[in-house]
Amino acid sequence: MVKFVHHLNSGLSLVPLKSICVTLSVREFVAGVAATLNYENEEKFPLETFFVFPMDEDSAVYSFEAMVDGKTIKAELKDKKKAHIIYESAISHRHQAFLLEEDKCSRDVFCCNVGNLQPGSKVALTLKYVQELPLEADGALRYVLPAVLNPRYRCSGSPEDSCLDLKTPIVPLDDLPYSFSMTATVSSQHGIETIQSNCPLSPIEYLGDKKTSAQISLADGHKFDRDVELLIYYREVHTPSVAVELGNPKNNPDGLMKDPSAMVCFYPNIPEVEPSAICGEFVFLMDCSGSMQCPISKQDKSQLRIEAAKETLILLLKSLPVNCYFNIYAFGSSFEAFFPNSVKYTQDTMEEALRRVKLMRADLGGTEILTPLQVVYREPSIPGHPLQLFVFTDGEVTDTFSIIKEVRNHRLRHRCFSFGIGEGASTSLIKGIARVGGGTSEFITGKDRMQAKALRALKHALQPAVEDVSVNWDLPRGLSAKTLSPEQTVLYKGQRLIVYAQLTGTMPVKEGTGEVCLNYTLQGKRCENKVTFSLQPKLDDNFTIHRLAAKAFLQSMDIGFGETPAKTKKDVLKVSIDCGVISSHTAFIAINKDVNKPVQGPLACRDIPRPVLLGAAAQMPQSRLKASSSYPPRASRMSCQLNVYKSLRKPMVNEGLCSPVFGETYLVQLISLQNADGSWDLDEDLARILGISLKDLWSALPDADSSSWATVLAVVWLHAKAKHQKCEWELLEKKARTWINSNAGRSSLVKAAIAFTKSSVDPAVFGV
């Protein structure tokens, strides 16, 4: 193998990658993306370059091509091992070659190789992909273009040939030698309400009388300090739909691309029901590795990851149902369990857990999730209490596929809810464990609050299980549907469900219709959602629905380069190559066969530098960092971070607050005081938060016990002073109201509390 023939330490000004240009097209809830990497060799030697970059786990990459001297060279998708052999052979024979592949350890990391880039030569490489856009709780569609790829912690036993092992130069953001630009078009027949972004945009141009289209561009000077995120709000979003796309029988006589494909979008109208008597076992895995000491984002006053995590755990602990079981694991290079086994949720166990949460620090080294996961799964099940697992991590690991496989192997005994914290969290890990574990995934970046997203997941976990989920088709005679999506076993209120199917047989000559029905059982009641649709397939040159269907199949069957069983690998290879969608077992390879003579001269290797965030850099060996006057040494960086920690740390209850400042700080303190049964005690700590002396509280006590009075006052405070954060406290408030109804239950007590506090809270919130 001829590879590192000649290695030069050129300056950053000579890095061959000059710019990255992204074109985005969003139609309804599907994004189509073309990303072009522009290279130029300004040196006197032929080059081989390696560029490692992040991609979203849900991206269906279906095209890779090179523009060389005005000619387009389209890459072929081949078995990954064969693609590498072809590439190495071309390089050794001094021919120009291009390779694009997924990392062997994670679906959200890609590597692009350019071999034998001649002196003075310019090359534009374009990769294309399509992706479903996830639906946020507030109705927004979320598109994220990953720009941050933090260093990932290598565990023992991880593959040695990961793309992440390349000694890629790490540089400060200001020294990055290539530019980045993005333009986008958004369209919806329902009309666009608004578009928001975490990055500066040029003025948005809306088109059409009903704002059915919009054009967007990223403002100049974007730094790679955050992923580029768009939140798209349509005027109507929860509309079930079916789209049917023509196949391509000429080029694919026997594969998935041959027949029409259907994409069905359901918004199940799952009714609100009371949680069942079965409470569950709730296990929380909290990342306490060193990188959790970083802020969630680079925005001013962004909370430290570990501090947001601690507040979140306090909220979760107070929101747990009475009589459940729970445990907390803090993990890093090692792990610590709060209790030897899951314990019953009582006042004593809750207080002990709360004490330990307040002592948590980001001091456990690297990020190793697999070992504590295995310990959790080895514990015997608690009869009548199904396991609900919550995993919080910044996702900087390399053994992604091993972790996903472990969760998948235990999918029948639990549900797994996952949370990616901060910029650069692995979408492959976070989405992967939630998908195979039947839970939901959330990402916390920018101004997102981890607390709100965690409580939303807890609500999902407390929902009664939806059972007997099935999709049935009613089609004309001679036509049948083969579902391509994995079998759906879990549905949650407020979520969207997308199903892909291949339609085989004879399509109606005249315009016909079909019907698809989602069926499920909830607490013994049979429910169904029906959608009627046209059977006139539409032509799409990019075969978007077919590619997305193939991606859904690959995500369910392809469990990693070294993890997929041989029999399944055969099916994965066939679907991947037939549909042109990359997998962990395939790679795109292109050879420039029109070069008249082999490239001359010794070959020099150039690894394209990538940016690193300040916090992530603090976790790295100094040998990986490029010296820069703008980048302080490690000691001063850590000192800076400790100062940030001190300024952001929330004061605890007994630290002597000088005056009542209503808002987040007091909210956390108030919640910390709640008892496991949902009640509060009438004491000095509660009085300080309420801003009323304890003497006055006792003087105003109606004909009731002090705990009832304290609990009603606390609930009134929540509604009056923290209404905007209701999504974070509504579960624990519901527990408090249940306690009030059982122990006090008199409307006079509620009215007395509202009058005493001079609040405008409606007594109806208590059911009065």
Which class of secondary structure composition applies to the elements?
A: alpha+beta
User: Tally the helices: what do you get?
Assistant: 17
Rounded average pLDDT: 85
Q: Determine the oligomeric state from the structure.
A: single chain
Biggest sheet strand order reads 5-4-9-2-1-12-15-14
Globular, elongated, flat, extended or rod-shaped: what is the shape? globular
In total, how many beta strands? 33
Flag low-confidence runs. Answer: 1-13, 614-664
- The percentage helix is 25-40%
What distance lies between the first and last C-alpha atoms, to the nearest angstrom? 79 Å
Report the portion of residues in β strands.
25-35%
Main sheet properties = 8 strands, mixed
Task: Provide the gyration radius in Å.
Answer: 28 Å
General description of the model:
- This protein is of the alpha+beta class and 768 residues long.
- Helices cover 26% and strands 28% of the residues.
- It contains 17 helices and 33 strands.
- The strands form seven sheets. Strands 5-4-9-2-1-12-15-14 form an eight-stranded mixed beta sheet. Strands 19, 20, 21, 22, 23, 24 and 25 form a seven-stranded mixed beta sheet that branches.
- A hairpin with a 2-residue loop joins β29 (513-522) and β30.
- α15 (706-721) crosses α17.
- The longest helix is centred in the C-terminal third of the chain and has 18 residues, at 726-743.
- The chain is globular.
- Residues 1-13 and 614-664 have low confidence and may be disordered.
